[in-house]
Amino acid sequence: MSKILVPVLALALLAGPAASAVFAQAKEVFIPLLVYRTGPYAPSGIPIANGFVDYFTLINERDGGINGVKLAWEECETQYDTKQGVECYERLKGKGPTGAVVVNPYSTGISYQLIPKAPVDKTPILSMGYGMSASSDGRWFPWVFNFPTNYWSQASAVIRYIGTQEGGLDKLKGKKIVHVHHNSPYGKEANPTLETLARQFGFELTLLPVDHPGQEQKSTWLQVRRINPDWIFMSGWGVMNQVAIKEAAAINFKMDHFIGNWWSANDSDVVPAADGAKGYKGATFHAPGTSFKVFQEVVAPGTSFKVFQEVVKNVYDKGKGAGKKEEMGEPLYNRGIVNAMFAVEAIRTAMAQYGNKPMTGEQVRWGFEHLNLTDKRLEELGMKGFTHPVKVSCEDHESSGPILVQQWDGKKWTVVSDWIQPMREVVRPKIEAAAVEEGKKLGYTMRDCSKEK
Amino acid sequence: MIYREAGQFKTTYAADQAIFPIVQDRVFVAVLLAAAFLVPPLAANEYWLQAILIPFLIYSLAALGLNLLTGYAGQLSLGTGGFMAVGAYSAFKLTTAFPWLDIIVVFLLSGLVAAGVGIVFGIPSLRIKGFYLAVAMLSGLVAAGVGIVFGIPSLRIKGFYLAVATLAAQFFLIWLFNKVAWFVNYAPSGTITAPPRTVAGVMVTGPEATAAVRYVTALGLVVLFAWVAKNLVRGRVGRSWMAIRDRDIAAEIIGIRPLRTKLLAFAISSFYCGVAGAEFVFLYLGSAETLAFDISLSFLVLFMVIIGGLGSILGSFLGAGFIVLVPIFLTNAPHLIGIGMPVALQKQIELMVFGALIIFFLIVEPAGLARLWQITKEKLRLWPFPH
């Protein structure tokens, strides 16, 4: 038995990595996609991954790529696990004619792992609205981008929103706010800003961590009942969101005083709680999903966002969709679309500088740093009003974009606020201080932006 | 025909007691070691080194540590992840507090810290009077009261009871590192990041360190510790462990002190796991959160030991190889034969095939892969004339 097994295994192991040596064709830029379509985070991971792929397919099908350079990508399953994420990244980073030109980790944990590698591998990281908040300071982290806004800005904007709901920021004094968060780098990210703001505005902040994966939250919500907070802010992910919303409904918490961050407000998060979730709010930096029914009624004849029309025409009608057509418009699907659009536009910006050929990671990094998405450009893309204009600079890789608050009415999400500005005057100094600290840990030095072209 | 010891006469005790008494074995191991040190750094690409070989070596070291405790001393432990976390966090604290300290020394020191913690959590393995007290204290920290209620009935089941106590270690330690910000130098995200450190002028940790250097460092440590472990289990210490494992009362009667023996097993095992944990962050991941050391890691290492072979040094390596390499191979296999399939489906298939393979191997050889290797060697001695 063993005589057969040993050579077979040996052969198998030798052959394994040979698979990674598949070469792409010349006129392409390669983008690795670290996705999670299985495991406890799949409810959040699937719509994002689908949105991403659909937008890339749209670009290839409709425009024949970016200025004639096709997009190539490959998905790799990480299960939101950092160890598997590293394996995926290492496997995919060298593919394509110019290597991976941008990587989207879609996990704060994996972002933390890739940040030190980015300058070495010359692969820019786009951690859109997640990852390390300190990396917003482009002087210390030239290779990392987290625009349109980061966790700290989001937390400050949510506090500003709560303030307006209470009738002014000065009314926050003595209010009780609870932050229910995933007990991981991601969930903890907003804490320092919330603590600063609690001191500044005099509200009482309680931090309640929920351990991975978050299926068991009885003790957390028992504490919530004991504290009886005025507002709850949540940084959850995956299965944790559904459980938390169900628990909140079970204790009859006022759902319109329960605000999820932009990773905690998808259809898959609220649907399991059924009517209990009615009134639940979530932050977002792009228009929320329209469920497909609305989509058909409102969008299909003369859609509000042209981009969806185009996706339907060029992707789904050709049978090339990544998911189901009905799931288009979910907040996380839309986020995949926005994220893919940012990546594509950065490559386009780089091409305007370096010519219409496959870009390298370094050139795309330049493209990200000079990305200027105006309202006019968004209109051309069919996304006017879908997301806010973004301007990235050498110093500022975050651009402290404003957020929207969306609310679940039992069937669909609707926007219930104007664009809310983050408290840049509070957040930016914190980012700069944190960037010095985090940068020094990695042995970086600050670059001089006035010398950059 | 090739693998035959005819004509090899041992004329000294030393020759008779050598680790590899047969010349062919010595040559094989020497060639293997030379190849391991030379070939991958020169020939392998970064994917091979970073995603396959380095984790394989680190998991081997952890499996080695657990094998000393579970395989040789018979103490079932589910706290491996916790002890690895102790190693990782103490290495981080040490190297940030004393940046001038050699990183290898840091690894060893953090192993010692882990050993200390291991002893503390090993105390329940002793059937001494302070027993109830120890359980109450430990589990009280984790979930007061509940641990005692569940701990008392389990006193009668030694092996599983102990697993529960070590499980307490696992959860308590992870909770501790998550809760106390001092361990992560007050980083808001609670992540520890390996700072750049050099050994003799060569960058060993941090993003600038090449994969080849990190590989050689991990390999050097694992070879050293495997050699130490092999000698340890062949000597008085290892024999007393095995005596305790096989029948503790008989062992006590022939003069082996259970207290010292079991605690030593916990200490040495935790030392190995601690060093492995430090390497896990510094040489492999580069930065980590407590989630990397959760209970699933403990189970993973335990499975490596069981599949590789309980009570076998070689088994630790075979088990680590099986568990690290087979899933990666299964991930790549569909591409290799030219089948494109959705990643989610591929992952599900990978999990199913992997599970089936584990069951298959355990049915074919319940004593583990190391036993298969041994059988192969025995057959090889007779080959090609089995009669």
Please describe the topology of this protein.
The complex is a heterodimer of chains A (453) and B (387).
Chain A: H1 2-15, E1 28-35, H2 42-63, E2 70-77, H3 82-92, H4 108-114, H5 118-121, E3 125-126, E4 144-145, H6 151-166, E5 176-182, H7 185-188, H8 191-201, E6 204-210, H9 218-227, E7 231-235, H10 239-250, E8 258-260, H11 267-270, E9 281-284, H12 292-299, H13 306-316, H14 331-354, H15 361-369, E10 372-373, H16 375-380, E11 390-391, E12 404-408, E13 413-415, H17 424-441
Parallel strand pairs in A: 1-2, 3-4, 5-6, 5-7, 7-8, 8-9
Antiparallel strand pairs in A: 9-12, 10-11, 12-13
Helix pairs in contact in A: 2-13, 2-14, 3-4, 6-8, 14-15
Chain B: H1 13-16, H2 23-43, H3 46-72, H4 80-97, H5 103-122, H6 131-143, H7 146-151, H8 158-179, E1 192-193, E2 197-199, E3 202-205, H9 211-234, H10 236-246, H11 248-253, H12 258-285, E4 287-288, H13 295-308, H14 313-336, H15 343-364, H16 369-382
Antiparallel strand pairs in B: 1-4, 2-3
Helix pairs in contact in B: 2-9, 3-9, 3-10, 3-12, 3-13, 3-14, 4-5, 4-8, 4-12, 5-12, 6-8, 9-10, 9-12, 10-12, 13-14, 14-15
Strand residues, percent of chain A: 5-15%
Q: Strand fraction band of chain B?
A: under 5%
Tally of contiguous helical segments of chain A:
17
Structural class of chain B: mainly alpha
**Continuous helix count of chain B:** 16
Helix content of chain A: 40-55%
Proportion in helices of chain B: over 70%
Identify low-pLDDT runs of chain B.
127-157
Give the rounded overall mean pLDDT of chain B: 82
Count of strand segments of chain B: 4
